[in-house]
């Protein structure tokens, strides 16, 4: 059977209800009835002002007749003793033949306000309500009438049959209706004395029973709206079609033989998100082939744009660039500013996100330098009032500011501008802004604010922001938890992500990498080399991985190499990575991290002085660009160098200055070495004291105990982050200190502690 | 006719059974269907065995009566048929797959002679020779070879081949005619196969006396059809009569014959030449119905046949149509409704039923009927007509036209669709299209009075009264007892200034009207026809009066005006024994007549009478203003006269 274009039994019932309303419904019921009708005839506008769940019934285009019961039961009609439901059902059952249905439609015109041509003279303005032609109800009524006029007879017949089926359950609802309904579904048949067992009746209505199984009465118009909604969800949230929904869609489409263009688009998005490159392509082409057929060429550039995004998403940058170039050319030709600006913005974004790949694919930059590009886009966006683009560009500009290490206030200013725009123009770009803000604060070393922004995003804007951003926020929270050593918390956070996200390949990969990264870090600290090898082999980044994650993975790998004592390899890796970062003009944070890694390496190999210049440079740049965590690390390394050349006092002073800030940052992996260095400084200072004098001996004892305090603190930090090796090292230090004091018993105890701890850890690894 | 004896009945059964088989073999499906329906509606059909027992072993004991002893076969034909049996099966399957050309090519060489050919040199001996050496094809002339082939065929094979050829031509004609009412539609396209077929058949019939073969009636039927298509109607009738003489149970031949009869006189003229059997009796009933002879005799004949075939849907339909012609819609509706119940999947003549419902303004039932028909088969011209009628009743004329068009696309010769489409075009004020539609309807069937009447109406709309007069006269000739037709004629006469003729036409309308009025009810024919008998149509009377006024025959005019007034009360009760409820009451027409009378009396100086009438007018509340003015005038005159007197 084919689908009807617009009219469904539901719509007929709504028309009956509109009739009822126009016949002066009692005032108490007016608002509920009107809102019920409107919620079904007007597609909801996607807005954030209203929460989406405020009209849940919209989702269900094929609502059952029960919905009418729920709405109407509670209201009394102007006939005493009868509810509106009674009146409604009475009218429903008064449609007792196809002719009556026809009359319902042909009389719809009476509901409308008389126009001048119709003759205004009729003063029949009693207590009836007349609908304006342009009011929502008027438009609905007129559309319904028009659609009915357009129906061929057998389609009208089908509608009539569907209506009978739809109405059938109400026959026994009330006594009054039961009496009315007892005459059967068709008064003509009843007049002829036909019962359901008669042959003639079977000819006319026999098919109704078969259609019961079909159930869903849904028109193309409804289906259109349904698909529109699906598309909106897919495009906005970037998720996939849920399984049960897909099943339903399939069922609706399957038997009807009607194929709507949008359904191809839905399939395209679904396949794309599922990582099914071939069918995504296939469906994209199919959709635009059909789109061409129905409309002008205007779809062409959008087809290209989609293709470019798709290609890039699957890592085929060469094709993507070719496609986007053509998109831009076509958009220019067609004067489609929206498309043009969007393409340029996307291109800009891509060249930043995947600089190496884009260069490799031969992208030379469309708009000159990056800053020029952004300025151009900003101007264009303002010109064409594309606030969405403007907001995104402002955020990009802020990002650029941060990446190049420019002034933080300016970045903040851009962000606030974007935020202002979001609020004023009601752009749902909050996700990006929140994430960027959180990044900014983490770079400034205010970890808890950073986490707060992530959580804000998750709690307040979850429904309106893309799944992608949600996952990023969760991962960031997980990383924050790792910093303070709460690995299990972090992993459980990641595990708690809705399993449906895993159905999208990109998200799955992202989550997989994050989980792997956290596990790898833990494994390195726990010296669980088997796990490390295993994780490292499975976490090879490729060209389509998120660039940020690629960097984190590489640095984790360097950490691993250092921890395993494969220093030459580590050194080579650092060199390679810093070289490539320099080439692609990467984020200043990443480049400083490499400097620090180099300095750390020289410290680990026992020649900290070698890393002096590197560490100093790192510190100065980090200070200039306000990358506080890096600054603190660099300062720690510097003080270590100072320690190694015997400048214990200076080292101590430096460390005293930074440690309080790092504690605020709550990154134990950062704080622990600082405490350790401080302990070293005090030990060094203690060694400088002249023990011959009593004062000196006292001072030394005091400094040694200070050192012990800091060593204890460092040990505590290392314990928290489960860095076994360092923890044991500090237990050793404690033992040595005890020995130094001459307390052999205590020293023995500490060394036993050390051994026990070490064994414990090894055992745990073995168990796991 | 009375009841039949058992043997007669068995004979009829055998004949009908044979007719079904023969028609099916020759792919005359409609005739076969008709015969089969009739066969199954025999009164004692149910007695001979109930359906439930078919599978029981008992049924083996009673073999079906074989028709062979009753319907003798021609040995020559049987021999020929036996020889080409396989080829015949092939041809028939092609025909059933609607591959007409291929079917014809099984028996006939593809190139048929063009035009008439006169090869009288093929006596029986020669044909037998060619039968043996058909494959040689060594005969000198091509035409000769074709004829040789033809003579070598059995009549059955020849009929099938030529019939396929004919249908192929019809199909091609329809295809080339393109859109309904398009530029190619209407007489432009001809069936190009006709000449070839008629040439062969002509030759065949020329040789018939010498060839020693016995005519079977089928080829005659086909030749009749071809001749009728070629507008050679006299000869066509001859061949149809021959055909039914040879084979009486081919309903198609009877039907074609009745469609060629334009008037009752023609029917009576040929009646004596027809074979006297059951079929000709049925034909007679059918033809009288087609010619709107809905009189007592038709009903009694029908009842007689119905007593033999009590459940025949065809005959019941004829009965309903008779009632329809006499405007007894309730009876007709009842019959159709019962038919529908007994045979729900039947679509035949549902269009007539829908016409009845349309006239009765039973829209819900019309919708139901449309629903039924659509559920059974959307693409039957009858169905489309029913749906079109429904939309017409709902004043959706565009959609109605769409459905009538569809009906015509399915069957260009579907008469009622043409007429109904004409009506719709009139409603849509598209007079040219309306005229064309009506014209096509009339071309298809010259007996369709509604189309003639519609044509007249349309021309009246165009203010071409003298032209319209012709059509109205045709309609009135077809329906002499329909007052509407005569009124239209009268109106036209009045418009063109022939008042005397107009008056005569109106008087005919009065006669016809009272005839029908009396005819309603059981006392058929007993009603006295004539002026002043029953209730007369006041409108007609008024029109007559107006025409007399034109002729300046004032007393006559006044008399008719009085008659108009008289209709308000109706005839005296005792004359009809309370059967007639009363007069028409006060209508705009009677009021107009009253006003005229009042003025006339006033002019004559009969003020008292005029006053009375004017006051009556005021009471009735019609034309009050004029009446009051008149009253004032009368008072003034009376005053003045008193003053003067």
From TrEMBL, chain A:
Any single GO BP term: protein K11-linked ubiquitination
Keyword ATP-binding among record annotations: no
The species this protein was found in: Zopfia rhizophila CBS 207.26
GO CC term (a single one): anaphase-promoting complex
Domain of life of the source: Eukaryota
Record domain Anaphase-promoting complex subunit: where: 264-353
Protein's job: Component of the anaphase promoting complex/cyclosome (APC/C), a cell cycle-regulated E3 ubiquitin ligase that controls progression through mitosis and the G1 phase of the cell cycle. The APC/C complex acts by mediating ubiquitination and subsequent degradation of target proteins: it mainly mediates the formation of 'Lys-11'-linked polyubiquitin chains and, to a lower extent, the formation of 'Lys-48'- and 'Lys-63'-linked polyubiquitin chains. The APC/C complex catalyzes assembly of branched 'Lys-11'-/'Lys-48'-linked branched ubiquitin chains on target proteins.
Membership in a protein family: Belongs to the APC5 family.
Keyword annotations from UniProtKB, A to Z: Cell cycle, Cell division, Mitosis, Ubl conjugation pathway
Keyword Cell cycle appears in the UniProt entry: yes
Identification of the protein by name: Anaphase-promoting complex subunit 5
Automatic annotation (TrEMBL), chain B:
GO BP annotations, alphabetical order: anaphase-promoting complex-dependent catabolic process; cell division; positive regulation of mitotic metaphase/anaphase transition; protein ubiquitination
InterPro entries: APC8 (IPR007192), TPR-like_helical_dom_sf (IPR011990), TPR_rpt (IPR019734)
Cellular component, GO annotation: anaphase-promoting complex
Alphabetized Pfam families for the sequence: ANAPC8 (PF04049), TPR_16 (PF13432), TPR_8 (PF13181)
TPR repeat residue intervals: 313-346, 381-414, 415-448, 449-482
Compositionally biased region (Pro residues): 62-72
Repeat keyword on record: yes
Keywords: Cell cycle, Cell division, Mitosis, Repeat, TPR repeat, Ubl conjugation pathway
PANTHER family per the UniProt record, alphabetical: CELL DIVISION CYCLE 16,23,27, CELL DIVISION CYCLE PROTEIN 23 HOMOLOG
Name of this protein: Anaphase-promoting complex subunit CDC23
Residues in Cdc23 domain copies: 11-320
Chain intervals for the UniProt region annotation (Disordered): 46-74, 116-138
Superkingdom assignment: Eukaryota
Skewed-composition ranges (Polar residues): 118-128
